[in-house]
Design a protein that fits this description.
The complex is a heterodimer. By secondary structure, chain A is an alpha+beta fold. In chain A, 47% of the residues lie in helices and 26% in strands. Chain A is built from 4 helices and 4 strands, in the order H-H-E-H-E-E-H-E. In chain A, helix 3 (41-53) packs antiparallel against helix 4 (81-90). The longest helix of chain A is centred in the N-terminal third of the chain and has 14 residues, at 2-15. The chains are: A alpha+beta, B mainly beta.
Chain lengths: 101, 301
């Protein structure tokens, strides 16, 4: 019984630091940009770099198949659609729609 | 010596064709270079010409290694600089003796700009049309000598002339395939009593995505393309000291199957240009093949 209690305590201690991070991520704001004209991996790099340059953007995930760039914002960051659209244009593409959860 | 001169002139298309830019392997595309982004590209191009109908038995081997730097000055304007290193060798029989002539060194640089005038973007699909114009600069030497005296101009790394060119590139790219077409004309000018004939090109390229077969995994997967390119090239006759060389220039049509691996940061590519039709003037040497292999790498300063 003592061993089992020790194991449970160890697992709890190891996973405890992850819990707030996951919660924070779930709560972190994001925006999904539907990008028209994105049809080649080599061109996707420029899009990612320009979106990352927008102040308040923490991470960018691009999905070629759906033509979407999911922009993860820093907590409490305020990034307006115009800034995101301008970044997409600088990369040489067209932002058709921006949705936020 | 005069015979050698004429033989060398007849060697024809030794000067490397424009090898640069994003998209197809053997010519220009209209694909975007993001604002502020740079692309470094280099290729190695091996050219072999033989099949000489004259007793001289000429065989030409040339290597060109151009280094290309592209820069996105704006989402629509891209600037390009090309600097090649070239090595040309001509084996020829003169008076029963087999000799080799040739030269190597930095070739002529190209500077040009390309501006996107039509951009139609749809989901996973883009159409771009972009005219381009530029100048070939005489950065390569055209006065090298060897054991037989001055190396013939056709074998020199540079032309010595300032040659403007212009053209139009069009690209339709989807997630599954890409179609490119380009037309270009170069006005060659005279330098030190020699003038290469003008050059006109019509190029086309079709690329089909082989891998991954589907894009279900999401993210930005690397693509592997099967490529087929077509190059229709016309060269005018050269002129030396005011005399037209009847054994230079002509029309050639090459088909180039190739492979291309494209990731978000780099491209690896190779193609072999095989002559399908060659209507060359006089005894101009015919091309056997041209093999090209290269890479591209994109970065931000």
């Amino acid at each position: 019984m003592t061993t089992l209690r020790f194991l449970l305590l160890t697992i709890l201690l190891l996973t405890a630091p992850l819990a707030p991070t996951a919660a924070q991520e779930a709560a972190a704001p994001s925006a999904t940009i539907t990008v028209d004209g994105l049809s080649c991996p080599f061109c996707a790099y420029g899009l990612e770099k320009h979106l990352k340059k927008v102040p308040g953007v923490e991470r960018v995930d691009i999905n070629m198949k759906d033509g979407q760039a999911i922009v993860h914002l820093k907590p409490d960051a305020r990034v307006d659609d115009a800034a995101l659209k301008a970044a997409v244009k600088k990369a040489g593409f067209t932002a058709r729609r921006i949705t936020r959860p | 010596m005069r015979y050698i001169w004429m033989v060398a002139l007849a060697a024809g298309l030794v000067a490397p064709t424009v090898i640069a830019h994003a998209g197809p392997i053997t010519f220009n595309s209209a694909l975007p270079v993001a604002d502020g982004m740079s692309i470094l590209r280099s290729q190695i191009k091996l050219v072999r010409k033989s099949g000489d109908a004259t007793p001289a038995g000429r065989v030409l081997n040339a290597t060109a290694t151009p280094v290309v730097l592209a820069y996105g000055a704006s989402p629509r304007l891209a600037l390009f600089g090309v600097l090649p290193y070239v090595d040309k060798r001509l084996d020829v029989t003169v008076g029963g003796t087999r000799i080799r002539r040739g030269a190597r060194g930095i070739g002529d640089a190209l500077l040009f700009g390309r501006y996107t005038v039509i951009q139609v973007d749809k989901p996973g699909d883009t159409l771009r049309v972009a005219p381009f114009a530029g100048l070939k600069l005489p950065t390569g030497s055209h006065t090298q000598t060897d054991a037989f005296g001055p190396v013939p101009r056709i074998l020199q790394p540079g032309s010595g002339s300032w040659d403007p060119f212009l053209g139009l590139a069009a690209t339709r790219q989807t997630l599954d395939w890409e179609l490119d077409a380009a037309a270009r004309y170069r006005f060659n000018t005279e330098a030190s009593g020699f003038r290469f004939g003008d050059e006109a090109r019509l190029d086309a390229s079709f690329q089909y995505r082989m891998f991954p077969r589907t894009l279900e995994r999401g993210g930005v997967p690397a693509f592997a393309y099967l490529v087929l390119e077509s190059n229709l090239i016309w060269n005018g006759k050269n002129r030396a000291s005011g005399i037209t060389d009847a054994n230079s220039g002509g029309l050639a049509w090459n088909l180039a199957p190739g492979l291309q691996y494209v990731s978000d940061r780099f491209v690896l590519e190779t193609a072999i240009q095989i002559p399908a039709v060659q209507h060359l003037n006089g005894t101009a040497l015919k091309s056997d093949w041209i093999w090209t292999a290269g890479f591209r790498w994109n970065f931000f300063f």
